[in-house]
Design goal:
Strand content: under 5%
Number of strands: 0
Number of helices: 7
Largest sheet: none
Shape: elongated
Order of helices and strands: HHHHHHH
Low-confidence stretches: none
């Protein structure tokens, strides 16, 4: 009787769901992470504030500010992932989310004029304000993605 029990376990609906779903999980998560890395790279390349260079120089305020960029990109991407039904859907809505969030980051930088310079000067309070504003816009965009 033992071999029969083991074969039933191997064909259980839970195992079948895992075998069918795990590759999809990897593809969808990988696609979303690639969008996150791509968005962060575009931000780093286009940012006049050059946070990555400042991080390399040991500026903790720049580290906090760039952490806000990562979180600000991740929030709408996570929602995009959760509401999408296919990899193409994730790519389309994820790319839209990244572009919109990058534009929102630039708008926040313009509205909070002077904050990016204060971040370059190592002012943690300015970095926290930038992070808060970026996360606020990310949450609004994430909610908008749910329709």
């Amino acid at each position: 009787m033992r071999p029969l029990a083991q074969s039933q376990t191997l064909i259980s609906p839970e195992i079948q769901a895992f075998v069918g779903g795990f590759p999809v999980l990897l593809i969808h998560a990988g696609t979303t992470l690639a969008l996150l890395v791509g968005g962060a790279a575009v931000y780093a390349l286009l940012s006049p504030w050059k946070e990555v260079d400042q991080i390399r120089q040991g500026n903790p305020a720049a580290t906090v500010a760039f952490g806000g960029v990562l979180l600000g990109l991740a929030a709408p991407l996570a929602v995009s992932l959760s509401v999408s039904s296919s990899t193409l859907d994730i790519l389309i809505w994820g790319a839209v989310a990244v572009v919109m969030q990058l534009l929102a980051f630039r708008l926040v930088d313009l509205i909070l004029a002077g904050s990016p310079q204060r971040v370059r000067d190592g002012d943690i309070s300015a970095a926290v304000l930038l992070v808060s504003a970026r996360l606020a816009t990310a949450l609004v965009l994430a909610a908008a993605l749910t329709g």
